[in-house]
Amino acid sequence: MTVLPYKEQDASKKEQVAQMFDNISPKYDFLNHLLSGGIDILWRKKAIKLLRPANPKTILDIATGTGDFAIEALALKPDKIVGVDISEGMLSFGREKIRKLGMENVIELQKGDSERLPFQDNTFDAVIVSFGVRNFENLEKGLTDMARVMRVGGTCIVLEFSKPKHFPFKQLYNFYFKFILPVIGKIVSKDNAAYTYLPESVQAFPDGDDFLKVFQKAGFTQTQCLPLTFGISTIYIGRK
Ligand SMILES: C[S@@+](CC[C@H](N)C(=O)[O-])C[C@H]1O[C@@H](n2cnc3c(N)ncnc32)[C@H](O)[C@@H]1O
Asked: Where is S-adenosyl-L-methionine bound in this sequence (predicted)?
């Protein structure tokens, strides 16, 4: 079943997701760090560190949003990072951050859909995505297009929420995620649905081996998954 942010609307998931991120973009970074206690920053750092041995020179950051994963990837000293996203609101905050860092010559953000990427086959050394794949309208199609634009021998890193499995952390986390996070998210972002959509979409999304099955079907090989912080998030690694 497809989880939608605005259940009363007829618009497609993609249109609703773009609208939702446009709405919350002014508060997105603040809420991310507040609601995760800053741990999202450590997760992105860890994911990028895993790319170091591959030494990628060209990186595509899918669902780049306000650009945090792309900015973190600067640590790898690549020649070029391209970020794509369907939300112009998120991209405009990202462009401002990159301008302040003086990194416009390395990171370029552009509007683009992960399910129809505007790049030739085998273009990038690495394709990365943090907290994006859960929002795709068609997960398999998005992952397949990511594999298409990555060169043979390249590495793909996916960072995404997963579901903690063990007592008592699972119960504590579920309480926070379902009852506390949506209230804070709604008050700060002023969007009634976005932070209810977050736990609902995580609940419905395949994690661990279930995600790896779709990842492999999309064309990635030598796949691995690495749960983080009691399984709240997971890093998936794939090659082509
Ligand atoms: C939770 S944000 C993640 C942003 C960023 N990667 C981060 O780690 O903070 C998810 C982003 O995915 C984008 N998105 C959703 N579906 C997409 C698609 N089909 N193609 C490109 N971007 C998409 C949304 O617009 C949103 O900016």
From this structure: 66, 85, 113-114, 130
- In ligand 1, the atom with minimum distance to the C-alpha of 70 is 6
* Ligand 1, CB cutoff 6 Å, lining residues: 14, 17-18, 21, 63-65, 68-69, 84-87, 90, 113-115, 130-132, 135-136, 142
Is the pLDDT reported for residue 93 higher than 90? yes
66 labelled binding-site residue? yes
- Summarize pLDDT for 155-182 with one digit per residue, the tens: 999 999 999 999 998 999 999 989 999 9
Give the domain ranges of the chain.
13-239
Identify the CA nearest to 97 among candidates 124, 65, 62, 75: 65
Q: Are strands 221-228 and 150-161 parallel, antiparallel or unpaired?
A: unpaired
CA of 37 to the centre of ligand 1 (A): 20
Residue 181 to residue 206: CA distance in whole angstroms: 21
CATH topology of domain 13-239: Rossmann fold (3.40.50)
pTM assigned to the model = 0.97
